[in-house]
Structures are given as C-alpha cells and as structure tokens.
Amino acid sequence: MNIFSKIAAGLKKTKDSMMGKLEALMNSFTKIDEEFFEELEELLITCDIGVETSLDICGELRKKVKEKGITDPALIKDELKEIIAEMLGEDKKIDTSTTPTVILIIGVNGAGKTTTIGKLAARYKNEGKKVLVAAADTFRAAAIEQLEVWTERAGVDIVKHAEGSDPASVVFDAVTAAKARGTDILICDTAGRLHNKKNLMDELKKISRIVHQQAEGCVLETLLVLDSTTGQNAVNQAKLFSEVAEITGIVLTKLDGTAKGGIIISIHRELGIPVKLVGVGEKLDDLQDFNARDFADALFETETDFDYNYERLDDKEEEKEDESVLEKAEEFFEDIGDKIEDVADKVEDKFEEIGDKIEDKFEDIVDDIKDKLDGEDESEESNEETADEAEKPAEKKDLKNGKFGFLFKEISFGKKKKNEENNDTEE
Description:
By secondary structure, the protein is α/β, with parallel strands linked by helices. It has 14 helices and 8 strands. The radius of gyration is 48 Å and the shape is elongated.
C-alpha cells in the first residue's frame, strides 16, 4: 500500500460520514439558494470543521458560485475541495536541517505521544540518521518503561533518569549527550499536561528554555500531539498549549479510527498551526507526512491523478494484489496440509508401536496368569491328599460316635463283665 492509499484508508470514516451527508444534501435541492447554504453550514459544523471555519468555507463558496454562475448543487463538490485545499495552505514538513535537530513532543496523556515518538524514531533510524530519545516524562508512572520498549523496537538509544526526577535535567543531559555523540535527531518526551496543571505548564517553558540555551542555533520543533477522536476538544487543547509553547506543528493521531478528521481544517484555519504528521494506523510506518492536496482528494474521493509522486492503485494492480494474496493463502494452507499429514503419519506410527507393545505385554500377563493357575491346581491336589490322610485317624476316632458306636460299647461292656467274673472266681 502506497502513501496516498494509507491516507485515503485513514480518512475513510471521515469521508463516509461527510460525503454521505453532502450527497444527501445535494440530492435534496434542485437549486443553490440561501437555504442550501444554511444547510451546508450546519452540515460542515456537524463534521467537526468548526463554526468559524464552516462560515468561512461557505463564504468562499458563495463567491465562487456567483463568479462561475453555478446553479446545480451537484457541481459544488469540486469547488468545496479546492476551497479546503487552499485553506490548508502549503505543506510543511519537520525541519531536520541542523545537527542535532531537537524535537519536543507535547500533549495531554492518552493523545499518543509515546507511540508517535516510537514511530518517529523508527522512521529517522531507517533513513540512516542517528537518533537519541530523552525520557523527560518522569511524572507519569511507567512512562519511562513504555518509552524504553519503543526505543528498543526502533533500535535507538535513550537517556533516562529515575522516576520523579527533574524533567529539565533529563533534557539537559540528553542535549549534552546528543552534541557529544554527533546525534542527528533528539526526540524529547514530556509529561502530559492540562491547562489546570500550572506546575507542568511552567515546567514546559523551562524545558524549552534549556533547549534553546544548550542547543543554540539548532532547530527546535515543538510538536503538539492531538487525538483526532476528541474532535473540537483537540482544537481547544491546541489553543491552550499555544499560550505556553511555540508550537511549530501538529501531529494528529488515530485518524483511522474516527469520523472527525475535519478538525485538520479547523486547526489550520483558526490557529495557523500546520498539521505536519498524521497517524493512520498502529504500524511503525503508519505515521505519515501530511499533504493537503492528498487530504482533499481522499476526503472527496476524486478519480483524478495525484501529484507529489503519489500513484493511485488502478483496478489491474488491485486485482494483481488480490491474486497474489490468494496465491499466498493457497500456498500457506497447502503447507499446513502437508504438515498435518506428516503429523498424522507420525501419530499413526506411534499408535501402532504402542499397540504392539500393549499386545506383547498382554500376552506376557496372560502367560503369567496361566502359570499361576496351573500352580494353584497342583497345590490343591497335594492339599487334598494331605487332608485325606489327616481324616483317616479322625474317621477311626469317629467310629465310637458313629452309627456302629454301640458295638464298641457292647464289646467294652462284655470285656468289663468277664474281667469282674474272673476276679470273683479267684477269690
């Protein structure tokens, strides 16, 4: 995906919202009159372009309609695009002409400062520049650790102090280190500030003063990071920060996640501060230089060719990309299928091996059981013989008490009587 495509994709929600309303408005009117302009002003305000900016756009459109004699509402789309592109003015990029160039990142917590620093560091590192990051947000818990993760990912060095240290001293040491190491870009993080945090606002002035003193003659870019999802609140933040810092540019983050991208026009028109960078995604290369013409073209979804060396993907190229994706997907699933078959074969072999072992083990167990059973049979036979022998005396003994016991009693009685008679004769 090229640069224009990224911006166009990032503006999709804003474009769908604004263009949907504009198409409905143009279809509901057959001529351009004062009622049409009133409806258009309301439409632009609801798209977070701001009251003053919306009035200015409609004022310029009135002039063009009158000069060109336009009567068909369907023809105002191109005129609106040109007016917005002119309001955004010339594109201004970050000035990196000095060594070092100091970039001071400011903004409220949650706007995307840490992510912006990581993406900027990666970009300049990929361009072959030597980058150093100063972790001067010592106020917020874990801010230093989060910044360390991003610097490691980008492959750049970091200057840090303990949590709760003086942020100005961190910046002082970072500027000194950048000059000593021949650093091209020094990016300084700062604590998130609000207008009611007077101590933090004063600290921001102190940091700016130290940079000017220690890096005299070097470019100082003060970039205000704004969350585009906050709409007109972002414009109010820019007004407050501009009172305590010389803001040289705006970084508008999370543009891909909101329908409020129209605040770019409002910021530039009301504050005169150029938008220099826009965040259109979460990847390292999703922080793009802002281009007014591309912004206007993407917002109004024209089919014209684009300047600034950006090329729109035509249908054939898109088809090629789709085919390439399908081919890769097929190769991927074929590869997975082959791997699954290999695993299945290995599992089958393993189960066969386990089955053979179980069968052998079972046969051994069966043999052991048979041997034990044979041994028990022999033991029972010997036990029966012993029992028979033991029962014989018992049987003899039991004859006295059995069915023939009376014979033994008669014999015993006869013997006893005979003995008594013999004894009487002798006497």
